[in-house]
Amino acid sequence: MGKQSGLVSCLALLLAVTPAGVSAERCAVITFDHEWDGNYAANFTSQSEIPFKGLDALFTFDHPVKSVSNWGGSAEVIDDIHVRMYNDNLFVETGAYCTFGFQVSYSGDTRPEVIAIDMNGQDACDGTLSWTTTEPYINPCEETGMAPYDYPQALCMSFLFYEAQRSGVLPPDQRVKPWRWDSALNDGVDVGHDLTGGYYDAGDHVKFGFPMAVTTTVLAWGLIDFPMGYEQAGQTEYARAAVKWATDYFLKAHTAEYELYGQVGKGSDDHAFWGRPEDMYMKRPAYKINRENPGTELACETAAALAAASIVFEGIDDEYSAKLREVAKELYAFGDEHRLEYHLSITDAEAFYRSWSGYGDELLWGALWLYRATGDEAYLTKAQEAWDEFSLGEKAEQFSWDDKKPGAYALGSMVDSTNTKYAAALKEFLRHVREDSKYTPDGLVFLDVWGANRHAANVAFLALWASKYGDPADEAINLLWAVSQINYILGDTGHSFVVGFGVNPPQRPHHRSSSCPIPPDSCFLNSWGQTQPGPNPHILYGALVGGPAEDGTYEDDREDYVHNEVACDYNAAYTGALAAIIERNN
Ligand SMILES: *[C@@H]1O[C@H](CO)[C@@H](O)[C@H](O)[C@H]1NC(C)=O
Q1: By three-state DSSP, how is residue 98 classified?
Q2: Given the CA of residue 33, which atom of ligand 1 is nearest to it?
Q3: What is the CATH number of the domain that holds 120?
Q4: Which helix (H) or strand (E) holds 322?
Q5: Among this protein's residues, is 435 annotated catalytic?
Q6: 474 and 376, same domain (yes or no)
Q7: CA atoms of 455 and 570, how far apart (whole Å)
Q8: Residues 6+ apart with CB under 8 A from 539
Q9: pLDDT of residue 562
Q10: Does 16 reside within a domain?
Q11: How many angstroms is it from 33 CA to the middle of ligand 1?
Q12: Do 127 and 169 share a domain, yes or no?
C-alpha cells in the first residue's frame, strides 16, 4: 500500500462542485482549470466541517496518464490509470477548504478524467465519504496477573492517560493516536513565543501551569523514590517521557529570567466549548508572571518540578538535567524575591486554581526540592525561614495541587533528617488523616467532595512513602491503609474507578476529547459529545475519575464533573502509589 501516514485521510463532508461543461463522470470534487498540449491542471476542493490531517488518496482515471504531479504534496503513479496522492503535512482546520492542485500529462486526444477517488477504502468522489482512521486504538497495556489487582497494568495505563492529555505536536512514538492528533499549534503566537506542548489540564483544554507543575513534581517524585516499581512494570521510559513532556514545556514557558508563562487558554471560553482539542477555534491567550506581576506559588512549584525532574534525568541526560536545575534555581529566586499570590497576576486562574493555602508551602517545598537537586545548604535555610514565617508545621488536611505541606514533611524528613520536626509532622499528618477523617461507608477516606479518589490516592502515596522511608513503627499501618485506599479505587466496591481498567470501569468520564466521535459524526450537533447516554467513543485508558460522594454513591455520568472528571493532577500521586505497591509486592 505504499506510504502509510497512519492518519485520518483527507476529506469529510464534500461540497459538490458543479463541473462546467464536462463529462458527468468526472468526480464532483475535481474542478478542471486549463489545458495545454498534452497536459491539464485541475483542483481537488472540499470544505471540511472538522479538522483533519494527512492526505492519502487513490485517484482512478478513465484513460491512461503519463505522469501526474501533486502541487501540494506528492503523487505516485501505480499503473497508467491509478495514481496515489499523498501529503502527510496537510492540516485542515474546521470550516476550511481542503484544496490542492495537480497536473496531468497524457498522450493522445482524450483527456483522462478522475472518475474515482478512494480514501482509506472509501469513495470520496461523489462527496459521501465518511471518516475513518487507518488504525484502531489498541490498548498496549497487557495483563500481568498481579493480584488482587493488576497494579503494573494500571501503572502502564496511567501513562497512556498522560499521552492522551498531550498538547502540541505529537511525537512519532505517541501511542494514543487514532483519536489524538496535533493540536493547539498556535499557543503563544499572541505573545510572540512558542508555547506549544505541555498538558491539557483535565476534561478541558486549558494549560493551567500551576497544577501542571505539581503533577510533574509528583510524577518525578514517584520515579525518584520508587524506581524499582517502574522498572518491574517496564514503565520507566514512559514515566520519564511523561515528566519530560511537561518540563520541555516549562522550559519554553520560561521566556526570561523573571518571566514565566503560567496559563494558555481562557477558562470560560475553553469550558464553553465541548469538542476535541484538534477542533478548537477559540482564542487561547497566554498569561505570564514577571517582576511587575509576580506569582510565588507558580514560580516555586515550577521550580520544584524542574528540580525534581533534574534528579530524574541525572545520569540519563546530564545536559538536560543541568538545564532543568539552572532554570529551577532562577524560578525559585524569582518566586522568593517577588512575592505575590499568583492568581493576582494571572487573574484568569483564580476561579479554577487559586492557591488557597498561600505561597508559604511552595516556598518550603520548592526549597527542599532544590536542596535535594543541588545540595546547596542555602536552600535548607530558605526552607527553615518559610517554615517559621508561615507556621507550616500547623495541621494540614490534604496533600494536593494547592497544599504541599504534607509532601514537604516527607521530603524534609529525608533530606534534612537531623531536623526531626519534618518526620514528626509527617507522622502526625498521616495519623490525623487515618484516624480523624471522614470515610465513605465502604471505606474511602473522604477529604473533599471534589475528586475524593484523588485526595485518597495523594495521601496513600505519602503513606507508602512513609512505609518505606519513615518511622518503622508505623510501617505496617501506613502500608495497610494506603493499599486499602488504592484497592478501593481499583475495584474493592465491585467496580473500578479507573477508565479502561478492571471490572466495570467508568465509561463516561467528563473528558472532551475522548467523548467526541470520529468524524464526520459531530461532537457539536445537539451537544452529542457531552450529553449522549452511551460510553465515550474512545477509551481514556488509565484515567482516575473523581470518585464517590460522601455516602459512597457514584454514578458514571459524563456531565458530573465533581465526581466523574479526570485530571492530570488526579493521576500523579496515584501513579507513584501504584509503583510503590509494585515495588513492595516483588
Ligand atoms: C485552482 O487552484 C488555484 C490555486 O489555488 C487557483 O488559482 C485556481 O483558480 C483554481 N482553479 C479553479 C478552476 O478553481
Answers
A1: strand
A2: 13
A3: 2.60.40.290
A4: helix 318-337
A5: no
A6: yes
A7: 8
A8: 137, 139, 499, 500, 507, 514
A9: 97
A10: no
A11: 7
A12: no
Domain count, the chain: 2
Residue that terminates a domain, selected from 100, 132, 164: 132
Together in a domain, 341 and 229: yes
**The residue type at 67:** S
pLDDT at 391 over 80: yes
Contacts of residues 22-29 at CB distance under 8 Å and 24 or more positions apart, as own/partner, are 22/113, 23/113, 25/62, 25/113, 25/115, 26/113, 26/114, 26/115, 27/114, 27/115, 27/116, 27/117, 27/124, 27/125, 27/126, 28/125, 28/126, 28/127, 29/117, 29/124, 29/125, 29/127
122 and 230 part of one domain: no
CA–CA dist 257, 427 (Å, integer): 38
Q: Which of 15, 34, 35, 43 best tests ligand 1's pocket when mutated (most atoms within 8 Å of CB)?
A: 43
| CB contact burial 467-489 (16+ within 10 A = b; e otherwise) | bebbeeebeeebbebbbbbbbbb
Are 285 and 181 in a shared domain? yes
Q: Which of 151, 226, 181, 223 is nearest to 496 (CA)?
A: 151
Catalytic position from the list 556, 563, 569, 583 = 556
565 is catalytic: yes
Q: What is the CATH number of the domain that holds 565?
A: 1.50.10.10
Residue 338's CB is within 10 A of a number of other CB atoms, namely 18
Contact 481, 457 (CB under 8 A): no
Domain end: 132, 160, 190, which one?
132
Model pLDDT, residue 92:
66
- The chain-wide mean pLDDT, for the chain, equals 91
User: Percent of the chain at pLDDT above 90?
Assistant: 77
- Residue 122, domain extent: 30-132
Kindly state whether residue 286 falls inside one of the protein's structural domains. Answer: yes
Closest to 179 (Cα-Cα) out of 277, 280, 282? 277
Q: Give yes or no: residues 290 and 207 share one domain.
A: yes
Active-site annotation holds for 556:
yes
Cell numbers representing residue 113 in the block: 478524467
| Mean pLDDT of the region 32-50 | 85
The type of residue at 577 is A
Is residue 182 situated within a structural domain? Answer: yes
- pLDDT reported for residue 279: 77
- The answer as to whether 166 is a domain residue is yes
Strands 39-47 and 97-105: antiparallel
User: Parallel, antiparallel, or unpaired for β 52-61 and 286-290?
Assistant: unpaired
Residue nearest to atom 1 of ligand 1 (CA): 43
**Alpha-helix runs per DSSP H in 375-474:** 378-389, 405-415, 421-436, 452-469
Q: What is the pLDDT of residues 418-438, one digit of tens each?
A: 999 999 999 999 999 999 999
Question: No. of H helices and E strands in the chain?
Answer: 18, 12
Ligand 1 pocket, Cβ-based, cut-off 6 angstroms = 31, 33, 43, 101
**What nine digits make up the cell of 49?**
466541517
The strand pairing partners of 100, in sequence order, are 44
| Whether residue 557 sits in one domain with residue 505 | yes
- Residue where the block lists cell 464517590: 548
Same domain, yes or no, for 413 and 267? yes
Say whether 510 is catalytic: yes
Q: What does residue 175 show for φ and ψ, rounded to 5 degrees? A: -90, -30
Q: Pick the residue with more confidence: 53 or 141?
A: 141
Q: pTM of the full predicted structure?
A: 0.80
